[in-house]
Amino acid sequence: MRRRLAHTLLSSLLGAALASCSGPAPQVDKDVHVAIYSNPTSLSLIGNTDLNSSQIASLISDGLVAYDANGHYVPMVARAWELAPDGKTLTFHLRDGVLWHDGERLTSRDVAYTVNKIKDPATQARSWVSLFANVASLDTPDDLTVVVRFTTTYADALEPWRVPLVPEHVASKDAIFLGGDFARHPIGCGPFRFVSHDVGQSVVLAAFDRYWGGRPAMDRIIVQIVAHERTGYESLLLGQLDLLAVTPDLWRDAQTNPAAARLTRFVYYRLGGWKIDWNQYEDRPFFKDKRVRRALLLALDRKRFAETVSAGLARPGVSSYPPESPWADPSIAAIPFDLSESERLLDESGWRRRTSKGLREKDGRPFVFTLMFTAGSQELSDRIAAWMQQSLAEVGIEMKIEKLGGDAFRQRRKSHAFDAAMGSVLFDPTPDRFDLYHSTAREGGFNFGGFSDAEVDRLLEEGRATVDPGARRVIYNRLQHRIDDLQPLAFLFQFAQPVLHDPDLLGIVPSSVGLFQFMPGPRAWHWSSAHVRR
Which of 5, 58, 220, 343 is the most core-located residue (most Cβ within 10 A)? Predict the structure, then answer.
């Protein structure tokens, strides 16, 4: 017996020695590493949000309802609801036992607090505030009931209640919501709790063990903030990232790069587009005439650009109702490339050349404007800007280029201090585009260019108040035709989104609303049993 024990001990020691000589054994973990290209504008869940902060907020805290992968509403913190026949009263019944990440119980009072903070202008809840404009009152008869009364019938009555909930017992301690402790260290009721934010480096979230929907399979989501898209791609190839949405250039490289051969890949279209806001305020003389706005798009050979520069992963934008939207009017087509018509409209609008190849002028002012966009990670932005600059020069327009940091860009756009501003935009599955076009959305919404049209305002208001699907479609078709005529924004392209990810990362489902902000989304991501960290 002693000899057998000694032999076993010797074998164990020898095995350990050999293992140490051959290097450390692969370490299994359940973390998922993803990337964004800029810091989130806020971690407050609801205030001063951009795409990055909205995606992170959706992981930290749930709303009363959420989208599923098909854009349909599903219960979240609310287990059920009833909408009165007149569409003016909505009653939510909350799940019992939903906990905040600090262990406190979520109640209807937290819902009321969240709505009050959204309505507070200091919160800068630009993404949500107009959705609550029709809320006349909110009552909380008990801890698990919320009764909402609207001023008028609201066809998209459930849409506002996707907002991430905010805990009153924590956030109310801060005198300044956006500048307080909560905005730096948010607490939610979602599947992942906030751990840390290292500015310019990462945001770390950890699985919430007591999540009402069951603990996620992942231990942590580590959101790495990378300075450049190629840096993110190289990290993915090295196994330092697990999932990455890539640009056309990198997608093309991944088709032949041996280091990318192991990666799983797919392409999908989101409800969104690449747009330009034309500043139509009185102190900006260039874009107030709809003929000019149409002429600029006519001067751009968008189909050729999409085919050559974007590796076939783009198509000319049509409107704020992409083809994937169930509300898109198929009779409306993208504005074609037509230099002759572009020049005719510019002449007709009073912007004329003195010589055949000269710069256009009107009332002694040359047509020279500046296109503003964010600097940094997106090489495609630079290519689009350079292509536009060259294309518009063909019709006698000089376009200058100004690249800004993300914060400076957003501030300038918000304060309307620009000629033209280029960036991406995402839409919800609903047909409501109030925040984009209504004249009241010039302050507090996303109508950055100051567009105003009484007929558009009327149609937007009528669409919100019309419940019958057939009548509603007629209204939104009229709106789309009106928008097509006026061209308040230039929808340059709709880009397909290529995604590369580790083949062992399972449960990823693409949706027209993205990869994150729907149910189950990242809640369903999990590693295969074969996974080891490279």
Answer: 58
